[in-house]
Specification:
The complex is a heterodimer of chains A (61) and B (176). Chain A contains 1 helix and 2 strands; from the N terminus they run E-E-H. By secondary structure, chain A is α+β, with helices and mostly antiparallel strands. In chain A, strand 1 and strand 2 form a beta hairpin. Chain A is elongated. The two termini of chain A are 29 Å apart. By secondary structure, chain B is an alpha/beta fold. Chain B has a single domain, classed as Rossmann fold (3-Layer(aba) Sandwich), CATH 3.40.50. Chain B has a 6-stranded mixed β-sheet with strand order 3-2-1-4-6-5, with helices on both faces. In chain B, strand 5 and strand 6 form a beta hairpin. The termini of chain B are far apart. The chains are: A alpha+beta (61), B alpha/beta (176).
């Protein structure tokens, strides 16, 4: 495994997934909602981190 | 929604585990973590969360921060927790239980995120790979973040994991 680089995104190996009696169509049955652009999202994460918005639950970070 | 856009989402989503967001609070770790998240984006992935992350992060939040936290989570592309996700999570539980008792510690939100990754061809970014156990999830990249705290050297390991869908199907469909 090459740990130096993050692997490129790849198409799903399985177009559908059969688990028991259920069959799921990859990327059709479940899609994400819309959100901010990557650039704006990074800015938002930076801001949230600085304001310590994310609660620390069970471990000491 | 255009077919091209659907195709992009199918190919390249990374679901952030809640613990990744929590580490952004740490001023020693946040700069390196943000650089890594940017690297993930420039490789071609969308950063996403599951709706279950609201359940993970909102408990105990002070009233003064609740609105801001919700707005921050709203900024993400989010996978919904649908009946399919709940069903697939239950099916993952079945495989985990038949495997090892050490998987008993895995919390429901992590199983929801795991099932979402399986159903959407997504990767998972987490600091706790034990919540997404082998051989069902495999490391595709590992990032080490070194930082100093109280004059002591520390290290945080971040894992990018891919579900082994073929193996999950095999184990579930051939269970006793």
């Amino acid at each position: 495994m090459n740990y130096m680089k993050i692997p490129q995104p790849q198409k799903p190996e399985q177009k559908s997934i059969r688990l028991g009696t259920q069959t799921y169509v990859v990327g059709k049955d479940l899609l994400p909602s819309d959100g901010l652009s990557s650039k704006d999202l990074m800015r938002e994460l930076k801001r949230a981190g600085k304001k310590k918005l994310f609660p620390v639950l069970n471990w000491n970070v | 929604m255009s077919e091209d856009r659907e195709d992009t989402k199918i190919q390249g989503s990374v679901i952030l585990d809640s613990n990744i967001l929590q580490y952004l609070n740490n001023s020693d770790i946040a700069p390196s973590l943000l650089i890594y998240l940017n690297e993930v984006i420039t490789t071609g992935y969308d950063l996403t969360i599951s709706d279950i992350t609201y359940f993970d992060l909102l408990p105990g939040i002070p009233r003064s921060k609740e609105k801001q936290l919700s707005e921050t989570l709203d900024a993400f592309r989010k996978f919904p927790v649908t009946q399919s996700v709940c069903t697939a999570s239950g099916q993952l539980c079945t495989i985990y239980r038949s495997e090892k008792s050490e998987f008993d510690h895995i919390e429901v939100p992590d199983k929801i995120i795991a099932a979402t990754a399986v159903l959407t061809n997504s990767l998972i970014l987490t600091v706790n790979s034990n919540d997404y156990p082998r051989p069902f999830f495999n490391e595709v990249h590992k990032k080490l973040i070194y930082y100093k705290r109280k004059d002591k050297e520390n290290m945080l390991c971040i894992y990018l994991l891919r579900p082994d869908v073929e193996h999950i199907m095999f184990r579930f469909n051939n269970r006793s």
